[in-house]
Q: What sequence folds into this?
């Protein structure tokens, strides 16, 4: 019997004035030409005592979303992680350019 490894992907993309770093278990070519389909999102454990406001906002944004289609030109990088140990503390982040330009 072979053990089937579950991949975890970190997809970094930019849309509008926001940059996203999203973790998911599934990525692939979309049926729509020029798009990448991302699904099976991974979020922080809700059992944690402290959840960052950014993670909470994105959890709400993607709560009822089955998958997203991202245009190829918006994707900055896709990483394939070995396992959940490589994820780190933050599962999902938004970086708002307006905040970084004001500082």
A:
């Amino acid at each position: 019997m072979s053990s089937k490894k579950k991949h975890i992907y970190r997809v970094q993309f930019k849309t509008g004035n926001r940059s996203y770093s999203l973790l998911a278990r599934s990525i692939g070519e979309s049926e729509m030409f020029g798009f990448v389909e991302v699904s099976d999102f991974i979020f922080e454990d809700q059992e944690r005592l402290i959840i960052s406001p950014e993670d909470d906002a994105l959890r709400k944004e993607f709560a009822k979303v089955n998958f997203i289609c991202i245009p190829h030109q918006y994707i900055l990088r896709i990483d394939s992680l070995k396992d959940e140990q490589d994820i780190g503390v933050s599962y999902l982040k938004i970086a708002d350019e307006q905040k970084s330009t004001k500082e």
Summary: Residues 84 and 93 are 16 Å apart (CA to CA). The chain has one domain: 8-102.
